[in-house]
Amino acid sequence: MQGKVVHAETTVAHAVLNGMHYYHQDWIHAAAHVTVPPLRIDSNTPSYLMGLLANDSLSVVASEHRPFSTMQRALGKEDFTKIPHGLAGVQDRMSVMWERGVVTGKMDENRFVAVTSSNAAKIYNLYPRKGRIIPGADADLVVWDPDAARMISVSTQVQGGDFNMYEGLRCHGVPLVTISRGRLVCENGVFMCAEGSGKFYPQRTFPDYLYKKMVQREKAIKGVDRDPYSGDVAKVANTMKKELGLGPMDGDPKGVPRAHQGVRDLHESSFSLSGSQVDDHVPKRSSARILAPPGGRSSGIW
Fold first, then answer.
1. Distance set, CA 154 to CA 72, 110, 157, 161 (Å)
2. What value does the mean pLDDT take over residues 109-119?
3. Which of 85, 211, 267, 283 has the highest local Cβ count within 10 Å?
4. Of the given ranges (155-164, 165-174, 197-206, 280-289), which has the lowest mean pLDDT?
5. Which of 201, 176, 196 is nearest to 186 (CA)?
6. Which residues 6+ apart lie within 8 Å of 271 measured at CB?
7. Are 169 and 98 in contact (CB under 8 A)?
8. Which segments carry the region annotation Disordered (predicted)?
């Protein structure tokens, strides 16, 4: 709103859940929601974050996928700060966002694609190779059925972990077919991708999505076209030249010392960077600590 170039993200969990889960009577349930930053207690926060995603104040919704088993989280059974933080969410990210974002009317289909896919590709300078359907781009495609529904359950998840934060949530919006670089990797919930088929993409620096505005703003700031100054320039007396052995100033008669006139010349100083100072001959005294009564002394000069 202030015109700054800022891009921020949130996670599915923060845009859907609140921190009341930390007060659950079941320790396993409460520990399964430990993440950083923590879920907020205010029940209005998820709806507010979803609104920020919809109006472009937030650019990306991530899964923050870090699944841990209950046994691993039990490392913090006596101290919650030792609970490994992270949530399992990559498998349900798209369906939950469709249900809570598009079905509820907070965002349209185009905004859904932007926050879940294309904006991330732009920020990481992979666009339009990723995040857009055009000739020459990677054929990363999802055939999406907006009317189909599925029930989220830990018993059917394949994303790791033994707990699902969205257990029992019925979501509209189901991916029927997933294609990665032109190859079928998932169809009707059946994963069929061979290990090692992924590919590393080195990221190029300075993506236009982040820097184009700033570059344009720098171009918009132009200098003033003016004629150069051609008048006389005042000569400033500098006693430092004598101290440093640099000789008289230009225009000074040789052998004639310059005299101070008018007010003190603020360009002159008794401070020297040559190593020796003008007050080196003054013996240094130890500092004295002055203890004043409350309210300060009533006499003396401070």
1. 17, 30, 5, 8
2. 95
3. 85
4. 280-289
5. 176
6. 277
7. no
8. 267-302
Rounded Cα distance between 169 and 189, Å, is 17
Average pLDDT, the chain: 84
CA atoms within 13 A of residue 159's CA, in its CB half-sphere: 21
Q: Are 144 and 102 in contact (CB under 8 A)?
A: no
Q: Work out whether strand 190-191 and strand 141-151 pair parallel, antiparallel, or are unpaired.
A: unpaired
Residue where the block lists tokens 């059925």: 145
**Nearest by Cα to 141 from 110, 111, 172, 182:** 182
| Closest of 44, 49, 152, 159 to residue 96, by C-alpha | 152
Which amino acid would we find at residue 101? G
Q: How far is Cα 50 from Cα 43, in angstroms, rounded to an integer?
A: 13
Q: Residue 254: what pLDDT? A: 57
Contact 101, 54 (CB under 8 A): yes
Least-confidence region, from 1-10, 101-110, 140-149: 1-10
Strand order of the sheet with strand 183-187? 141-151, 170-180, 183-187, 190-191
Tokens of 217: 């703003």
Q: How far is CA 207 from CA 118, 160, 203, 213, 214, in A?
A: 13, 33, 9, 11, 11
Do residues 139 and 199 touch, judged by C-beta distance below 8 A?
no
| Whole-angstrom distance, CA of residue 241 vs CA of residue 273 | 12
pLDDT at 298 over 90: no
- What is the tens place of the pLDDT at every residue in 52-100? 999 989 999 998 899 999 999 999 999 999 999 999 889 999 999 999 9
- Provide the pLDDT confidence category of residue 302 given band limits of 50, 70 and 90: very low
Q: Which of 173, 97, 96, 100 is nearest to 142 (CA)?
A: 173
